[in-house]
Write a structure and sequence with these properties.
Elements (H helix, E strand, L loop, with lengths): L20 H8 L3 E5 L2 E4 L1 H20 L3 E2 L5 E3 H7 L1 H4 L5 E4 L5 E4 L4 H11 L8 E10 L14 E11 L2 H21 L4 E5 L9 E8 L5 E6 L1 H4 L13 H16 L2 E3 L5 H7 L5 E16 L9 E3 L5 E3 L1 E8 H11 L1 E2 L2 E2 L10 E5 L5 H16 L4 E4 L5 H11 L3 E5 L1 H5 L2 E6 L5 E5 L3 H5 L2
Parallel strand pairs: 3-7, 19-20, 19-21
Antiparallel strand pairs: 1-2, 4-6, 5-6, 7-8, 8-16, 9-10, 10-13, 11-12, 11-13, 13-16, 14-15, 17-18, 21-22, 22-23
Bound molecules: 5'-O-(N-(L-cysteinyl)-sulfamoyl)adenosine (5CA).
């Protein structure tokens, strides 16, 4: 993409209405524009990042055996009356009436809708286990939407729902998602720390939040430094349904959870001290990016979602639900990865792989070198962002740093006299000179 032809409205000034750094940077770097309180337009640059995160989340869900469908944003109120949640959910639910005075709502979550799908089509234990997910916009009328996309009213969520014959199988479904989450956050360049959690309006008796560590996190967290030092996803995890795989998943989850981690809500000082040697005890702040729940027949019972068991008797399905805040992750990743100059995208989700800065647009030799690089990078399968605008070098450096492209190639007439360009690493700020002819190969290793 040539910046002169792109739509990237960047701003120098820090917006006054944004309190935390990720929100400020998302506005300044032209990722989002507020449309209404807690409701955002995803500008082209922000949308690219959102889609990349979404794709990694999708690949890891598929890898773990979950199957994608797409449920509507608008739901009928009747299903929520069946489950008993219509009145309980309270003011966070945006209730809508159509022209026939029928009651609708903008879905804050989809346990009821997906349970209705499964009770319609799934009749036998032979169709299980089943895990259905979608990546869809949700609406929650939060009292105090804040921090930009971190606590929006409209937000993009991946929500998966597992259906099993009995509790043992449902707990395995839970563990599959647990491990899929560890893999997902690692691929996003993050460490998602699982913490025992309260279940709130989703319900159930077993629940974990996945928290990423960041200075401006909403909740205080206490954890074993193992979560920073050890990568449990290094071991190949099988998502097959044979007994050996089920047993391996159980022991891996048990091993992960053996290390202490809790938000202040669930923190138990005595247990922390008993389980964790002093040099490994950490206190910090974190952002909840995922939340998983096991809740048995909480929905299947009132909604009469049953399958025939092996003995021919009908039983209520055992369920769990598994959320990831896809749009929240954009803010959370910036919160965890930035410096005073701007965003530093982890490689996997960077909206562009490499920036090209033309120090003297209009100079024939410099333009030619930049064009040559641009074409070569595209040919090599990279996505370059070429700053070809007629602007000061300083402004170009500042923009490229602000928007966080992981690698930058700086091309100017002086270097070109000896056939050289400069390669800069956004994260380390390290600069290295390379021959023009060599630099693409360097990037593409
Ligand atoms: N049905 C369950 C799991 S599918 C559920 O709704 N869980 S949740 O309420 O915990 O939400 C799942 C994830 O969505 C959260 O972990 C969080 O990352 C994200 N999320 C929740 N509320 C908001 C919000 N107001 N703004 C942005 N993201 C949110």
């Amino acid at each position: 993409m040539r910046l002169s032809r792109y739509f990237l409205p960047v701003a120098k000034e820090t917006p006054a209405d944004a309190q935390i750094v990720s929100h400020q940077l998302m506005l300044r770097a032209g990722l989002i524009k507020q449309q209404a309180a807690g409701v955002y337009i995803w500008l082209p640059f922000g949308l690219k990042v959102l889609r990349k995160i979404e794709q990694i989340v999708r690949e890891e869900q598929n890898h773990a055996g979950a199957i994608e469908l797409l449920m509507p944003t608008i739901q009928g109120a009747d299903l929520w009356r069946e489950s008993g949640r219509y009145d309980d959910y309270g003011q966070e639910m945006l209730r809508i009436k159509d022209r026939h005075d029928r009651e609708l709502l903008f879905g804050p979550t989809a346990e009821e809708v997906v349970t209705d799908v499964v009770r319609t089509y799934v009749k036998s234990y032979k169709d299980l286990p089943l895990n259905l997910y979608n990546i869809q916009w949700k609406f929650r009328d939060e009292i105090r939407p804040r921090f930009g996309v971190m606590r929006g009213r409209e937000f993009l969520m991946k929500d998966a729902y597992s259906f099993d014959l009995d509790e043992a199988a449902a707990r395995d479904a839970y563990r599959k998602m647990f491990l899929a989450y560890l893999r997902t956050f690692t691929r996003l360049g993050l460490r998602g720390v699982p913490m025992r959690a309260a279940t709130g309006p989703i319900g159930g008796d077993l629940s974990h939040e996945f928290i990423i560590l960041a200075k401006n996190g909403e909740s205080a967290v206490f954890y074993d430094s193992q979560y920073e030092e050890h990568d449990w996803t290094n071991t190949e995890i099988s998502f097959e349904n044979d007994e050996a795989s089920i047993a391996a998943r159980k022991s891996l989850v048990d091993e992960v959870l053996h290390a202490y981690a809790a938000t202040d809500e669930m923190h138990d000082e005595a247990q922390f001290f008993a389980s964790t040697p002093p040099e490994r005890r950490r206190e910090g702040r974190g952002i909840e990016v995922g939340h998983i729940f096991f809740f048995g027949d909480k929905y299947s019972k009132p909604m009469n979602a049953k399958v025939m068991g092996a003995d021919g008797k009908p039983v209520n399905l055992q369920m769990g639900s598994y959320g990831i805040g896809v749009s929240r992750l954009v803010g959370a990743i910036i919160e965890a990865s930035h410096d005073e100059n701007g965003i530093i995208w982890p490689k996997e989700i960077a909206p562009f792989d490499v920036g090209i800065i033309n120090l003297k647009s209009g100079d024939p030799a410099t333009d030619a070198a930049c064009n040559q690089l641009y074409d070569a990078l595209i040919k090599a399968g990279k996505e370059p962002l070429y700053d070809d605008r007629d602007d000061r070098a300083g402004a170009k450096f500042a923009t490229m740093d602000l928007i966080g492209v992981p690698m930058q190639i700086v091309v100017g007439p002086r270097g070109l006299q000896s056939g050289m360009v400069e390669l800069k690493n956004r994260q380390t700020q390290e600069k290295t000179e390379f021959a023009l002819a060599e630099v693409v190969a360097r990037i593409c290793v």
